[in-house]
Amino acid sequence: MRIDIISVLPQMFMGLVDCSILKRAQDKSLVKIVVHNLRDYATNKHRNVDDYPFGGEAGMVMQIEPIDNAITALKQQRNYDEIIYTSPDGEVFNQKIANQMSAYENIIILCGHYKGIDYRVREHLITREISIGDYVLTGGELAAAVMADAIVRLIPGAIGDEQSALSDSFQDNLLAPPVYTRPAEYKGWKVPDILLSGHQAKIDEWKLHQAIERTERLRPDLLKSEE
Questions:
Q1: 172 and 147 in one domain?
Q2: Strand-strand pairing, 106-111 and 82-92
Q3: Locate the tRNA methyltransferase TRMD/TRM10-type domain: which residues (predicted)?
Q4: 172 and 144 share a domain?
Q5: Which residue ranges are tagged as binding site for S-adenosyl-L-methionine?
Q6: Annotated binding site
Q7: Domain hosting residue 209, numbered range
Q8: Tens of pLDDT, residues 23-56
Q9: How far lies 80's CA from each of 92, 127, 210, in Å?
Q10: How does pLDDT run across 120-129, given as a tens digit for each residue?
């Protein structure tokens, strides 16, 4: 898999895509993450990529030409399953979308910035708009990093124990059950006896019950979405 990220602040990804699971996945050649500086695709001598909006609204708008240049250059090298724009008014990113995208071969993520991008980019170049929540960030870089992490960890081989990813919260629209480790008792706080029993079938039944109970209590909306 290859993830191309287009940003006006590529330095923001230092430390985000070159450590932990993302680094290990790249070291194993399971994924390649390439961050592109949008200013490299500007045609003016000052490498500006934004301008004032028509109509007099406050703020600056990312220009269409450098974005088109960047996307066109990448598409000339390979085919892409999706060209994604990080936007607060896009569809909300969730585990289902992460699962879907983990099977893709190549994606482009365009990070929004300033007041937004020239709307013609969204009309003619973008195939999907994604939000990570109902709030506004300074730019789409953090959203792109969140998406990359959620997607890459699902690629077979990225995590040492693949069952770990499959048992995460939001898989099957359930929150994960509680987890515990040694010591079995600390300050009088004990690990549930069932987890120490060695009876795997009963342990699995307990975990499912806990997952359902926690989801009903903390995120009932997840269960309603399955109806």
A1: no
A2: parallel
A3: 1-224
A4: no
A5: 112, 132-137
A6: 112, 132-137
A7: 167-224
A8: 999 999 999 999 999 999 999 999 999 999 998 8
A9: 21, 10, 40
A10: 999 999 999 9
